[in-house]
Every structure is written in C-alpha cells, then in structure tokens.
Write a structure and sequence with these properties.
D-Maltodextrin-Binding Protein, domain 2, 2 domains, five-stranded mixed sheet, 15% strand, globular
Length: 310
Amino acid sequence: MNRRNLVAGALALAVLPVLAACSGGTTSLNTPPSAAGSATGASGTIVIGTANFSENQILGYLYADVLKAAGLEATVKPNLGSREIVLPALQNGDIDLLPEYQGNLLLYLDAKATETDVDALQKALAAKMPKGLTILPPAAAEDADVFTVTKETATKYGLASLDDLAKYNGKLVFGGPPEVKTRQVGLVGLKQVYGVEFKAFKALDASGPLVKGAIKNGDVQVGNLFSTDVDIAKNGWVMLEDPKKLIPAQRVVPLIRTDKATDQVKSALAKLNTALTTEELSKLDSLVDNDHQDPDTVAAEWTKAHGLSS
C-alpha cells in the first residue's frame, strides 16, 4: 500500500506531460476517460485520478462505483503517475478526487511533520490542506510502506529492524519506485532518522514485479514494498521493524476538490470507508497483481458483493 513529498514547487500550477507509467501503458491528463463513467468534463461528473500502481487504481474504481451507485456521475483517469503529478492535477482542476494515504500525503504537504497516529494525522492534514481541497475521513484500510528483505538476507546480516541497516552502510543495494529516492519515507528519512546509507539505489516500481523480482534474485537486498502485498508473506520475506517511527500511519483517505465534496459524495465514500478493511484491500491487490485481473473488474465485483453497488 503504497503507497507515496519533498519535491520543491510540486504544488505549482503547471502543464503536465505525458507519462510513461510503471505498470504499463502510456497516459496523461488528456487521456480519454476509462469506461468506468461518463466523459471527462461533463457537467456534474466527478473525475477520479489515480497514481501509477495497481492498488491506487483499484481504489479509484471503487470510488467511482460507489459514487455511481449513489446516483452520481463518475469517471476514472487511471495510472497518471506519482503524487508529484496527481496532486497538482487535483489543484488545477484536471481531476476532482484522489485516493490518498494519510502519512505520506502529510509529509508531501509538510516535510517537517512529525504526526504518526491516525487521529493526529487527520487533524494535521485538515490544517495543511491547500486552498480548494478537502480531506475526508479515512477508511478502515491501511497500506504502509515497508522495507523488506529476504529471510536469507535477514539471517546473513542479522537484520530485524531499520536500525540494523546502519551497520552495513555502503554495502547494500536498495530498490523501489524512483520517487522514494527523494522522499522522507524513503532514502531521505532512512539517512536522517536511522543513519542508513546504501551502496546504490535501483529505480524500479511500486511494490510491483520489478522490485519483487530484484529482491528474489538478489539484485537488491532491501526493497520498498507495501504492507498489503500478499507476496511478502507468500515468499517468507521479513518486514524490518521501525522502532523510531519513520513510517507514519497510512490509512486510505479520499482527497477531493472542496466544490465537489457534497453530502451525497461524502455519504457514498463513507460507506466504502467502513467496508474497506486492510484485509479486503490486500485481497483486491492480489487479484490484480497475482491473478492478473483488471482493476475495474475487481472493483466492480467487490462493491456488488458488499452491497455497495447494483
């Protein structure tokens, strides 16, 4: 889950480029909308954008399904890129709604934020919201970044927590999505909080086949994955403990343009937030990542099964 802050000026209004997305395909904010809803720009339509990893796309389609079930028009622009792309797009009005993650969103807005628990994060987010944006209540589901090693690597180097990595500064290779190199929950924070420095950084994907393959074959010793990723337990990998709380709570939270945050929208998303637990989100991730099902299909079947759509 994973989902995810220090790029200066990223909130500035800008024309956004076409992006080659990590999980396949090419997209931009001018991409035609998916079949999940009505045409982008139609009066009253809520345009949902998602980041470039499968879980966030699933969440986008879940949002669209529950909104449509409430009688609203919704469409999804999936796979737009990292937070450094999608959040400015939200501010610009290119999209109206984003599935976000509490802790990393706050660190994007305030690199010096120290809040780590759910309630404190939500309060801090409300105080830091850019003009025109509103943070809605979080879901029960959480997906946090986790720094993961194989059991063999853990045994070889005696690794149980992030503290242990500093004993091997300059010897281990770290892998994860490109933006993790400059994020607080990433190489920046690992150095500041734990004094960890790596031999090299490999830019891969967000808890996807590239980083997991690199962990398996030993190209990287430490990988940035998401806590909802079922492959961690499946492979017997070790999630390094975080005793100094570098990684804040990461409950899934809707971020929306204030002019779109009607009572009808809030009510629909609140119903989803109650039903969507971490366990359920992990199952949905597995259907897409391991069973190769389409995110829109997985979302539609889940909302129907849980009485959230017809």
